[in-house]
Amino acid sequence: RPEVSIRPTEVCFPPAMDSQGPFLNQRALCSLLGAARLCQLAMGCAVVAMVTHSAGFSGSQGVFCMAAWCFCFGMTVVVFFLDTTRLYSCLPVSWENLTVTCAAFATLLFVTASVVYPLFFVQSDCPYAGCQVRNFRIAVTVCSILGALAYGAEVVLCRARPGQAVVGYMATVSGLLKVVQGFVACVIFGALANRSEYFRYVATIYCVVVYAFCFVLTVLVVAMTVCRRTKAVCCMSFQRFVVVCTLLEVLLYLSASVVWPVFCFDTKYGSPWRPSSCPQGRCPWDSKLVVAVFSFVNFGLYLADLIYSQRSRFVSP
Predict the structure, then answer these.
(1) C-alpha 59: how far from chain center
(2) Is it the case that residue 308 has pLDDT exceeding 90?
(3) Which residue from 165, 198, 262, 290 has the highest number of Cβ atoms inside 10 Å of its Cβ?
């Protein structure tokens, strides 16, 4: 039987990566997108270095900020390396959808850390360790804000323009809203886990089930898009499937946005005002308020998603 020899470069690399072509993706280096990612790397490295060197962090708030910065920095390193070397062609994913999803998620993490860190660690007066620590914390905040702007710039550069043929759902406004919805759901879950006492009533347990179910549906849509499973779902097109899921999520969040405040703040079941004896940071009333506020936020996001999904059209990769 005749033997067929296959060059290693023909296994998963595009033709431009063979021995006769350029080894690096010049577009990933010499473009606005490349400049945005280089800025992300610079700001992420600066933040992590200053926090570990002198700025410092403590408590659950500091751990969250440090984890967010480290995660985003590591994710950007991987994305930049794979894009520059074109090794992403070996991955069974839609690279455009994956990168814009990562950029949108990193933007939300950096924005949150840019608010939480100065709120808990930056003071007008110099702490006991001296003004040097305060100055480093101010510099960390500035670099974190610049990093958030850099990630936001990548989202803007990759976002679909009106009238443009879009390859990938995550580049549309509806796709980006999915990332925000998932992030807001994570905030809700964090508040639920922080002494929210949701288990006291069947109605509040129902709200938790709604939050979890909608979160799973959102993650499923994003995962299907990134993994190129957008041909057909349950005998319907992927776009119709997304619209059906979004409509269901709107109805469920509408019910939860009504039920949760009633069973948490009505005088029959709870208290409409914050108890004076409630400890700061460990008050169930505060967690209930956070869940109520972000329930309305996510309901608005799902409603906007439903409106935009009627007008967006994309080409399945």
Answers:
(1) 23
(2) no
(3) 198
